Each structure stands twice: as structure tokens, then as C-alpha cells.
DNA sequence: GTCTATAGGTGGATAGAC
DNA sequence: GTCTATCCACCTATAGAC
């Protein structure tokens, strides 16, 4: 693996282990096995390194979401989006935390890359589109798509954050994924049009 | 106000403004208007100060939740719990972030006070009780109360975190509270027993 | 591209005077 | 209880040799 790749890889590990407060160029250099100076040949400064991490995270996240489009019906595509969301959060917990759970101030970051912001919006638009499809197909209440998308996002993000904060340590991965399925069931129930009575 | 109170007050402000990375004893002392040394007369060290902050936060949070018990029916008590949750999150955003959104590692904390952990569990038990009531009254599907409570908590926590991370800045407080009401509606719909068809 | 050496800064915490 | 003075650890970042 190239040094630049190793730096990014170890950055993720370091962030997970020590948290944002414990992330330092010196500590990183030690893990990578070079002197701190060497890092500055690959990244302009600390902010640039973290920005790259964020950027790659969103890029990767997008590819997870796109998988959901192979679903055959709008409702299935919405559900697969939810599953893709948790796939990403569980397989890349450090990136997820960095992208969605860490205020910039906590990273000591002054500015966030514009492209990261744009990708964040893109993610939300993707979800809004899934909701619009469902409304058009009559499998979801006809409420403002953005409000519904926010509700869905909040629900999956809430569960993912609780998990990644270590507050559900008593559940093994299988049990957690079962709860994810339950959550997605509940989300669908919350969106379902009133049934004929 | 006594110095000790002022220290705690300014700690919250400092955490909100600068994030956990920007929280330092020196910066705090400057805000309070004393020298850093003086802080150590009131708190053994940085960890003890943050632990006190956490502890008071949970204590205050409990008092918010208890208001919900004035509801007349199980469903109303559940809904009022949700409202109380957001009341606390919006009125004490720095405490909320500290209690529910910040991994200990990000604070540079080695250990979390046991009483904070216990209060966290207590909070969850409160919610489980609200759910159990609803199940007993037949207004909620008869599923595992803990799983249902986790779902409800994840949903409100998700929305609160997104809000406090500044990602819904385009909504003013009134608009946000409207969305809260919408979210609570959706939660109730997701818990409702299948209606007779 | 990586090193040694170093500048310049911030942080937690304590000793001892008042 | 609060101050001045201070110690020591750790941080980001750069200059210049190899």
C-alpha cells in the first residue's frame, strides 16, 4: 500500500481509537511508521488530511446508496436504501462518525470542504427521491416529501448513532441487524397511507 | 452567582461555542474572569469538572421527563415524553450534546462517572415504562417493550442530533417544533396496532 | 520523500505568596 | 480563594540536510 493510503487508513483507526481529541499528526506519524514531517509531503496540513477523509467517506457512502436502486419497487428501493445506510455505518463506523456525528468544531476544523457539503445535500436529495417515488406509487402518505425524508433519515441516523456511540454493546451484530429490520418495518408503518376501514 | 456556579455556566457556553476540542481550563478561566489556578479550588481536575457537568445534565433531564407523567392516558404520557425530550434538547443544547452526542474519547475523558451511566439507564427505563403502559392499554403493538422503546428513542434522538449539529439551520424554531409534532405523529403511527379491516 | 532539529504555541497541573 | 510564576508534556508546522 502506498504511503498516502496508509496515512488515510491509520487516520481512520486513530480517530476510532482515540476520538477526535486524540487525533494528532504526531500520533498518526508514529502509527504509520514515519516522522511527522513526512506527512506534510502528502497533505498540506491537518485540515487538508481530515477534509480528504471526509470527502472519501461521502464518496464511498454514495456508492452504498446507489446499490438500493436495484430494488424492483419504490418501497423496496426505500427499504434497500435503509439497509445500505446501515451497511455503510457498520462497515465504516469511523467514516460515519466523522461525516454525521462530529461537529466540525470538535475536529478543530475551521472550514469544511464545499464538496463534502454538496455530497451531504446530494445524499438527502437521494432520499427525497425515494420518498417521492413511494408517494407517486401510492404506498406512502402524500405529505411533503422533504419532511418525510427528514423523518426517515432521523430515524436511521438515530439508531446508527446510538449503536456507534457504544450504547448498545449488549447486542451482537446479528441482534442489531434484526433490530434494524424491525426499525425499517416501523418506518414503513409510519409512512403507510391510512388503510380502508 | 457563586464562582462554582459561574464556572459550570461558562463551561457550557465554552463547549457550545468552541466544541470539545476547544474546551480548555485556560480558556474557561479567562471567561470566568479568574486565573486557571483558581478553577482547581473548585474542581479537582478537568475530568471532574466535565463529570459534574454531565451529572447535572442528567439530573435536569430527569426533571423534564417527569413532567410527562401529568398526561391523562398512556399515549398522552408517551407523547408528552417526546415533547419533554425536545424541550430539554432545545433549551439545553450544550448539555444534550455532552450527554448523548459526544463519545467520551472526544472529551479527552478517561472514565465516565458511574452515576451518569446509571441515570442514562434510568432514562431508558422510563421510556420502556411508557411503552409498557401503552401496550397494556392496547394502543401499541404487543412487541418487546425494549425494542419499541429503542425505536422511539432512536427516532427522537436522531432528529435532535441533526438539529443540534446545525444541519437544519434553514428551519426556525417554530418550523422545527412543527416537524417535531409531525415526527411524534409518525412514531404513534408506527406503533399503532393493525386496525380492523 | 524522508530524515534531524527546531521554532513557536497551547495545554494541564502545582508550589508558594498573599 | 485567588494570585504569580513555573514545570513539563504535547501540539502544528517549517528549514535544511540527505
How is this structure best described in words?
The structure is a homodimer of 197-residue chains. The mean pLDDT of chain A is 93. Chain A has helices at 3-18, 25-32, 36-42, 46-67, 74-91, 93-101, 114-136, 145-164, 173-191. By secondary structure, chain A is mainly α. Chains A and B meet through helix 6, helix 8 and helix 9 of A and helix 6, helix 8 and helix 9 of B. Chain B binds a DNA duplex (18 and 18 nucleotides) through helix 2 and helix 3.
Which properties best describe this structure?
homodimer; 197 residues; 72% helix; elongated; DNA-binding
Question: Could you outline the blueprint of secondary structure elements for this entry?
Answer:
The structure is a homodimer of 197-residue chains.
Chain A (H helix, E strand, L loop, with lengths): L2 H16 L6 H8 L3 H7 L3 H22 L6 H18 L1 H9 L12 H23 L8 H20 L8 H19 L6
Helix pairs in contact in A: 1-2, 2-3, 4-5, 4-6, 4-7, 5-6, 5-7, 5-9, 7-8, 8-9
The structure holds a DNA duplex (18 and 18 nucleotides).
Q: What's the helical proportion of residues of chain A?
A: over 70%
Low-confidence stretches of chain A: none
Structural class of chain A: mainly alpha
Coarse shape of chain A: elongated
What's the story with the biggest beta sheet of chain A?
none
Give a short synopsis of this structure.
The structure is a homodimer of 197-residue chains. The first copy, chain A, is mostly helical and 197 residues long. Chain A has helices at 3-18, 25-32, 36-42, 46-67, 74-91, 93-101, 114-136, 145-164, 173-191.
Amino acid at each position: 500500500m502506498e504511503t498516502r493510503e496508509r496515512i488515510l487508513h491509520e487516520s481512520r483507526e486513530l480517530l476510532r481509537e482515540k476520538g477526535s481529541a486524540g487525533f494528532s499528526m504526531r500520533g498518526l506519524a508514529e502509527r504509520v511508521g514515519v516522522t511527522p514531517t513526512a506527512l506534510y509531503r502528502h497533505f498540506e496540513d491537518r485540515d487538508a488530511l481530515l477534509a480528504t477523509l471526509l470527502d472519501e467517506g461521502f464518496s464511498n457512502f454514495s456508492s452504498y446508496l446507489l446499490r438500493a436502486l436495484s430494488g424492483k419497487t419504490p418501497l423496496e428501493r426505500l427499504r434497500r436504501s435503509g439497509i445500505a445506510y446501515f451497511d455503510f455505518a457498520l462497515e465504516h463506523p469511523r467514516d460515519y462518525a466523522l461525516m454525521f456525528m462530529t461537529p466540525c468544531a470538535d475536529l478543530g476544523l475551521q472550514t469544511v470542504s464545499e464538496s463534502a457539503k454538496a455530497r451531504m445535500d446530494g445524499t438527502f436529495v437521494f432520499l427525497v427521491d425515494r420518498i417521492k417515488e413511494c408517494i407517486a406509487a401510492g404506498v406512502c402518505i402524500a405529505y411533503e416529501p422533504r419532511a418525510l425524508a427528514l423523518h426517515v433519515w432521523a430515524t436511521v441516523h438515530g439508531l446508527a448513532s446510538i449503536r456507534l456511540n457504544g450504547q448498545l454493546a449488549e447486542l451482537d451484530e446479528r441482534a442489531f441487524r434484526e433490530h434494524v429490520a424491525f426499525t425499517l418495518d416501523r418506518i414503513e408503518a409510519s409512512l403507510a397511507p391510512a388503510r380502508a376501514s
